[in-house]
């Protein structure tokens, strides 16, 4: 797409389940693999949209852009709008949780990979944990501690959702390289199979 986003469609005839992918990074840096994630989701049977957000350090307007992308994805003729999920990495993991709070009726599965704090954005979002209706899965590496303590942030997400009586599970993977955050920078095992199993069980295989 012209703005650097990607839309990928499985072979065959729909309607298909769909997933909106939200990248990490800030400013010019894009965390995660927009194209690879989109293509991998399509191979697995999902219409996928990887939204490329503005290259700003602040997050003003980022959620609005993602909500517009979600609306467009749900209106796509190939998509079963009752089977739409959202996933994201780092800041995208935070935004995916914000989507679950803001549009609880529009998403049926949420996968948050090493969600970022973005100052108070994550803690503010978790104050509204009671609004979430979709099952949530949180993934992090045990050595994801360099930019921020993402392990603690992931535990914060789990405990806030648990306290609100929500369906949430946290998976903590073993150490990955020198910076556990990079585990989710590309499509790879073991996290990818875990995310796929979760999506298949919630919105995917009928």
What does this 3D model show about the protein?
By secondary structure, the chain is an alpha/beta fold. The protein contains six helices and seven strands; from the N terminus they run ββαβαβαβαβαβα. The chain has a seven-stranded mixed sheet with strand order 1-3-2-4-5-6-7, with helices on both faces. 46% of the residues are buried. The mean pLDDT is 96.
Q: How is this fold's topology laid out?
A:
Elements (H helix, E strand, L loop, with lengths): L5 E3 L7 E7 L11 H10 L3 E5 L10 H14 L3 E11 L1 H12 L6 E5 L7 H6 L9 E6 L8 H14 L4 E6 L17 H12 L4
Parallel strand pairs: 2-3, 2-4, 4-5, 5-6, 6-7
Antiparallel strand pairs: 1-3
The stretches of 5 or more residues where confidence is low (pLDDT under 50) are none
Order of helices and strands: EEHEHEHEHEHEH
- Identify the overall geometry: globular
Radius of gyration, CA atoms, in whole angstroms: 15 Å
Total helices: the number is: 6
Strand content of the residues, in percent? 15-25%
Structural class: alpha/beta
What average pLDDT do the residues reach?
Answer: 96
Offer a concise description of the structure:
The chain is an alpha/beta fold. It has 6 helices and 7 strands; from the N terminus they run ββαβαβαβαβαβα.
Quick tags:
206 residues; globular; 6 helices; 7-stranded mixed β-sheet; alpha/beta; 21% strand
């Amino acid at each position: 797409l012209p703005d650097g986003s990607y839309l990928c469609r499985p072979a065959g005839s729909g309607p298909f389940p769909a997933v909106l992918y939200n990248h990490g990074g800030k400013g010019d840096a894009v965390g995660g693999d927009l194209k690879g994630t989109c293509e991998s989701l399509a191979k697995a049977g999902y219409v996928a949209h990887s939204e490329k957000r503005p290259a700003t350090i602040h997050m003003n307007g980022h959620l609005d852009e993602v909500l517009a992308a979600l609306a467009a994805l749900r209106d796509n003729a190939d998509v079963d709008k009752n089977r739409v999920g959202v996933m994201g990495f780092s800041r995208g993991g935070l935004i995916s949780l914000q989507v679950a709070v803001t549009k609880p009726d529009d998403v049926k599965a949420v996968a948050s990979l090493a969600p970022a704090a973005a100052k108070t954005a994550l803690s503010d979002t978790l104050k509204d944990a009671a609004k979430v209706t979709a099952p949530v899965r949180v993934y992090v590496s045990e050595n994801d501690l360099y930019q921020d303590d993402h392990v603690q942030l992931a535990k914060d997400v789990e405990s806030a959702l648990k306290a609100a009586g929500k369906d949430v599970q946290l998976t903590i993977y073993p150490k990955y390289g020198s910076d556990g955050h990079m585990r989710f920078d590309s499509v790879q095992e073991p996290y990818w199979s875990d995310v796929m199993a979760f999506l298949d069980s919630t919105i995917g295989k009928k």
